[in-house]
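quick one
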Amino acid sequence: MEVVVEGLVKRFPTARRGHHILALDGVSCRIRPREFVSILGPSGCGKSTLLNILAGFEQPTAGAVLVDGRPVRAPGPDRGVVFQEYALFPWLTVEQNIDFGLRNLRVPPAERRRRVRGAVALVGLGGFEHRFPRELSGGMRQRVGLARVLVMNPSILLLDEPFAALDALTRRLLQDQLLDVWSTTRTTVVLVTHSVDEALVLSDRIHIMSARPGRILQVIDVPLSRPRDLASPELNALRGEIHRLLADEVRRSFEEQHGQMAG
Ligand code: ADP
Ligand code: MG
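structure w/ magnesium ion:
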């Protein structure tokens, strides 16, 4: 699936009459079929807003998102979304949580069992099928969240800082697992993150956003095979380049705001 984002603008109303927050100011980009793309930017720059528009949860003020040429207007089963805290149903087991969407769609029981087994295997939850969410670690819960989405066979995975709440080791583990899932299923992945290293270790291309209002500042190619070594000279050079870009951007935005306050 190809995703084309054309001139997205998003304004949010505020409590003050006639005032609004400009979250996105002309975001355009193209995501290739089966590509692993990261959206990287300072917090508050509009990453989640962009992802929510791709998912169809939010409508843009102007501009459009086209998935294989068709405009996105609402959520759809072709786009699976995983958030930082996935709201699992606490009264359902791992297996029942993963099965929930299929059950709602009235998929026949034999197919449901087959697909749930596949999703469980894909994220390494074998042996935990009958546990309840409260019996699982944060990393395991996030795998259930991912499996719940994968079981629907989405063509695009939209991930909003899915590992941000996890400890560093668990995070590394789940990043590797996400790469396995991606290479097995060949879905397009759009990952929102504020971690430069996470973007470097995972992505084909990194779209760097400006401070609010969000625009795409630059698109960085990471033409390196996986698994990647974060200490390699190639990644060190790219890391330096991205940090410089982001530091310049944060400084520019601060000075702009400071200027406004003074003026
Ligand atoms: P990020 O995910 O990059 O941290 P967000 O997309 O969540 O940024 O937010 C971008 C800006 O839009 C922020 O200033 C935020 O306060 C504002 N914003 C986001 N959602 C809403 C909303 N529903 N109503 C009003 N303002 C919002
Ligand atoms: Mg966010």
